[in-house]
Amino acid sequence: MQIKKLEIAGFKSFGGRKVFVFEKGVTAIVGPNGSGKSNVADAIRWVLGEQKTRRLRALKSEDIIFHGTETKPQASMAEVTILLDNSKGKFPIGASEVEISRQLLRSGESQYRVNGRKTKLSQLEEMLASVGFGIESYTVVGQGMIDQLLTTSGAERKMLFNEASGIKQFDMRRQVAKKNLESSRSNIVRVQDVLSELEPAIALLQRQVANVSKAKELQEKLHVSRKAYLSQTFHSLSTRATETQEQLDSLLMQITSATKDLQDFRHHNTFQKQSTPKQAENLKALEFERDNLTQQQLLLQSELSVLESDLQAFQPSKVLIKELERKKSRLLSELAKLTHTHGQHKVKTQQVDSQIATINAQLGDVTTQLEGMRAQLEKSQKKEYVNHALGLVQLVRTQLRQTSSRQAIDASMLKLSQMLELASQDNAGGLAVDIVKTQNQISKFMATREDFVEIQTKEVLGLRSIEIDIASLEDQVKIIDTQLKESSSSQSKKIQADIVVHVKKIDSIKASIKKLDTNISEQRQALYEYTNNLASQNDHYAKVGQEIEKLASNKTKLEMLAQEQQQVLKDIIIQVQTVQSLASDWFGAGYTIEPLVARSTISLHVVEQLEYELKSIESIDPDLAKEAQESAARVEFLRSQEKDLNKAITDTEKLIADLEEDIKLRFAKSFTKINAAFSQYFVRLFAGGKAELSLVIGEDDEYGIEIFVSPQGKRGKSINALSGGEKALAAIALLAAILTTNPPPFIVLDEVDAALDDDNSTKFTAIIGELANHSQILVITHNHETMYCADNLFGITTSQKGDSEVLQLALKQATELIEA
């Protein structure tokens, strides 16, 4: 994973695109102060994902884009591309080389690419951590980091040791797992809150939906119950009507027989004329007259019953007639509204037609004008004049070259001026402009006409739609008028007239019978008084009178019973009409009541109870079932989510525990190695002494790292008490221990040797040589000893335009050339 190539463009002091090709071993980057050599280290750190501008020695992100100089403009973006060797396949991508690039625009937009593909920063960090370096990596040691290794807090120093211990990727996974755990816990709380709100509502919805699901069952039950009630009631009424009619017929026969018996008895027991009192004669005549009227009354009432039954067959129910009249009224109201709307649309259509006609007239005028302009333009000879003038110009040139006579040249020039004058007088250009204007005017007229035509089309369609609706409503009104007319047909009117006549006749006969009953009572009372006064009257006459009275009383009782049966029959007819009206209301006009199949016990109260239950259910929102189903599905989904979240929390907690245990083991093993290596390098650099690293557990159970050093011949003291050179050596010892324990693919050191003298610089270069055996070393330095140990050398200088320029020198090749 060593660096093969680095491209920098528009980054800090690099105005143009600069390319660094790095080889294995040690590469030194040198140059005067301010030339931009440290910007190379910043570029490597930036392209690997650094986000903190402070570490890039900038105040804000825009500061890293080349600002420009007096002779070179500013860059629109900063871009750095690093090419890494992946021949061993350590980087998690299927390629022998890995190209990472980062781009920042002045607008603030930034993007990363890995082998040309856009990549998120989090993905890049994870990939870099898997191969041992990243943003917080010790692979790029910038200016001031040497001091920070020693003077920073123990907790901050721990981050560098995490990189060195190779646990960075595990720590990142642990942090991601903790975030996921926190997110899962928050999500499960939200899910439980939603469930606590939804479950009571779901229970209520399900109860209501259970009632709604009964609607179909209730409708079917109501349908069957109505049919059963109608069949049962109609059958019962028909049976009662038949029985009542039979009883009435029987009573009429008995009355006829009783009348005959009374007449026969009177005939066989006639008194002598001379002995028959006047009261008896009057009574006999009155009773005979009453008998005839009673017979007429019974006959008329029987006929009246038949007429009323016939009238029911011709007349629809009053409920149906009222419904037809209400429907007709509603249709006439709608028809009036549509007629008014039709008139408005018709007026608007006429206005649009008028506007279209006006536009068509204007369009015709402008079109005629355009044709005239085109015809005039076709007659134009301006082009011929100009062509002729050009030919004359060529002729004059030829005459001048051939030194023709002055007179010939003047003649040609005269013709040339004439042609140009004719061309200038020709108004072809103006005509062309006028034609274009006229064409634009025609286009505007046509666009306006298209708009009005579209409006006209919509209005015509609206008119046709309204006319169709009006015709439909008129047809419906005609149908209702026909139904209402049929309800008052001539046959029905005739029956109604006959009923009126029969009712009047019956009323007249009843009045006559009532009057006769009064006279008969008076005559009987007179006859009774007469017979009482005749003490000597024969007992035979008394018995005859009693028998007559008995027969007459029996006949009267039969007549009263017949009248009662007639009233019962009339009531039954009214009830039948009520049942038929119910059948029309329930099942529509023309419904035929089905015959009774089985004996039913359905009462009207049962039917009304079913209607009430169905109405209460139908008042519920029909979308309630869908809402309940969706809510139940949501609750089921949330419960499954709760189960999944609980499992995810358990799995995540186990993962975090495993990662923490693995991190502790890996860190402890690595820390022991780094501690031993630090001690060795410290003794080597200080020619003795003692150095040690110590783990310190904080209040939050997080550990930190403390450094204890004791140079040769001195008592142990704090790092802060060391001199600048001693601090640099101690930091180099610690850095060398880290790099040796977990060697990175490459190391970038930015002026870490600035505080070293010549003797310590020699020690430093020796360590650099050892590190170069397993890592690629890039050193930014002013130190001659460090330059001397380098295999390759890059010089950074300031160009004439004010930006950084790059010079490369392969020292080994130069040495070989010198020796050769």
Provide structural commentary:
The protein has 18 helices and 14 strands. Among the domains are: 1-131 and 782-820, P-loop containing nucleotide triphosphate hydrolases (Rossmann fold, 3-Layer(aba) Sandwich); 226-320 and 494-613, no CATH class; 339-457. Residues 272-276 have low confidence and may be disordered. Strands 2-1-4-5-6-7 form a six-stranded antiparallel beta sheet. A six-stranded mixed beta sheet has the order 8-11-12-3-13-14, with helices on both faces. The longest helix is centred in the first third of the chain and has 101 residues, at 168-268. A hairpin with a 5-residue loop joins β9 and β10. The two termini are 34 Å apart. With 820 residues, it is of the alpha/beta class.
